[in-house]
Amino acid sequence: MAALEIHNVRKEFGSERVLKDVSISIDSGEFLILVGPSGCGKSTLMNAIAGLEPVTSGNIYIDGEDVTWRTPADRDIAMVFQSYALYPSMTVRQNISFGLEMRKVPKAEREAAVERVADLLQITHLLERKPAQLSGGQRQRVAMGRALAREPKVYLFDEPLSNLDAKLRVDMRTEIKKLHQRLGTTIVYVTHDQVEAMTLADCIAVMRDGHILQLGSPDEVYNNPVDMFVAGFMGSPSMNFIRASLENNNGGYQLRIATPGEDELVLPWPEERIAADMAERLNQPVILGLRPEHFSEEDERLTSQAEGTLLSASVAVVEPTGADILLRLPLGEQEVTARVGPKCAVAAGERLALRVDMGRAILFDAETEQRIA
Amino acid sequence: MANVIRRQTPAARLGRGLLYGVLILAALFYILPLVVMLMTSVKPLSEISAGSLLSFPQNPTFAPWTKAWGEACTGMRCDGVGGYFWNSFAIVIPAVLISTTIGALNGYALTKWRFKGSELVFALMLFGCFIPFQVVLLPMAQTLGWLGISSSRAGLILVHVVFGIAFTTLFFRNFYVGIPNELVSAAKLDGAGFFRIFWRILLPVSAPIIVVSVIWQFTQIWNDFLFGVAFSAHNTQPVTVALNNLVNTSTGVREYNVDMAAAMIAALPTLVVYVLAGKYFVRGLTAGSVKG
């Protein structure tokens, strides 16, 4: 049975429609991530699930029960807030046991629950402290402990890592993933950080303007995005979008990229990836989507079987990250980013031959920004 | 230790010297009335009529104080201001507590449980801060009559509570606006209700603003004269009204020393409250939000 089901939920603030017919269903133990730019409605959806804001229409089911009009307390959920929202006047121990106390759990059980989560999150030594005496990472742990103590059906995480510094964020991310694997809890997690989404989720819902654009596994969302927004939002550095026109090539297709003042660039489209409606778009402008890792140095092996297409370009900027090197190079009218191995000895201004893995390239309609192939 | 880097040229030093000179003079000017009152209140009457206002007392005596407290005539009666002093406390303490409590609840509801029109309600309450006392004297007298509590302490308490709520609501509302709403959301998810969240989450962090509200209300109500004179009977008068009566009751020689002692007695509680809690008053007024 679905642990959480959201059915045609709408939310309007006056005439502004913040959520437009959102439907999601996740199974028990699944990790769902709502991701999108600010103002996309993900936090509103989270608040609707929590019961902190009423929905305009639609239904929310937790464990099969309709909770749309139940108070937050009666939904059997727990939430970790972006600002942690620890009760400033209470010690860590009181913070963790407050929810149990409100639910009239006997004192002995409360103590046991506090010990259990404190042990789990390694915050036993902090139990008698006040929130003001804790560091950011410690507050984060306490906030999670408060949610874990009650063992609710669904956990809600509202951008829990966005107030932490970069290194701590990566550590806590791993920790959340470990906790999820260990406890098998159902989690809904809101973030605007696509790396968090990719690394944590079983299921990602990419949102924009109150819609869910795509709902799928991280692999699906990353490799098979439904439109240019999803393709551009997921992945860092983000996908390159190259203006091209679709042409006929002996029964197959090819993409011509206008390169003013240079030899023109033609990339053949792999036969096995020809989509049905490509024929109607012949000689029309399209957008070719290539991720930085779809480029590689000429002599490197390609991940897909297809022979990569060679192109040569002069390098504008070289950005070594340590693990690999990001190259900025002009391609047609735009500059693209390519990710090459750390050993690539190229300097800015030099020409470099690169292979393009067209087997993984993605084609979008230039007008609607929807995916073609 | 100096924690400011300043220019150390002779002209800058001279300028700063002048600045301090002016400030010290201004401070002396402000403290002067209090000093004169205090000196006059411990002088025997003969010294007052003979010496100047600013001369130090030659034979200090506390007789004027005891007279002001227990024997001086206020109108027809001659039992000092002592009884009225306690009257004032009997009015001020309940009025301060009630108005602060209601203000805190109002501020909490207006910020953490917003409802349609809550901003309008707040704007109207704010308007209450600007209503001149004189305007409501007659309607208030009428209302107290209907309620059957005219000329009683309960009536005066009610009047002060009604007037105080506008200010206390303003204080608490502005303080609670700075407390993150997520705290309340978290408590709701934890299963706490309206009063429980107030009592367990918000009240424990409200000490600074409670101090502000209590000092403000205490000073306002203690110093009130108009409502006191309009809505009290002779046995429920606050000390401010008694002081007025004492000063205006002249039989023969004007006893300035007794007048001054009575005035000191009437002013003492607000002075004490200010000295003891003034630090928290300033701190509470400037407190933006609560860390944590």
Describe the structure.
The complex is a heterodimer of chains A (373) and B (292). Chain A is α+β, with helices and mostly antiparallel strands and 373 residues long. Chain A has two domains: 2-233, Rossmann fold (3-Layer(aba) Sandwich); 240-365, Beta Barrel (OB fold (Dihydrolipoamide Acetyltransferase, E2P)), CATH 2.40.50.140. Chain A has helices at residues 42-50, 92-102, 107-121, 136-149, 166-183, 194-200, 218-223, 228-233; strands spanning 2-13, 16-27, 31-35, 57-62, 65-66, 77-80, 154-158, 186-191, 203-208, 211-216, 240-249, 252-257, 265-269, 285-290, 295-297, 309-314, 317-320, 325-331, 334-340, 351-356, 362-365. In chain A, the strands form five sheets. In chain A, strands 6-7-8-3-9-10 form a six-stranded mixed beta sheet, with helices on both faces. The longest helix of chain A has 18 residues, at 166-183. Chain A is elongated and about 80 Å long. The relative contact order of chain A is 0.11. Chain B has 292 residues and is an all-alpha fold. Chain B has two domains: 10-63, no CATH class; 82-286, Orthogonal Bundle (MetI-like fold). Chain B is flat, with a radius of gyration of 24 Å. The longest helix of chain B is centred in the N-terminal third of the chain and has 32 residues, at 10-41. In chain B, helix 1 (10-41) crosses helix 13 (256-286), helix 7 runs antiparallel to helix 10 (207-223) and helix 12 runs antiparallel to helix 13 (256-286). The chains are: A alpha+beta (373), B mainly alpha (292). Chain A binds chain B through residues 50, 52, 71-73, 77-79, 81-83, 85-90, 98-99, 102-103, 130-132, 146, and chain B through 180, 182-183, 185-192, 196, 200-201, 204-205, 290-292.
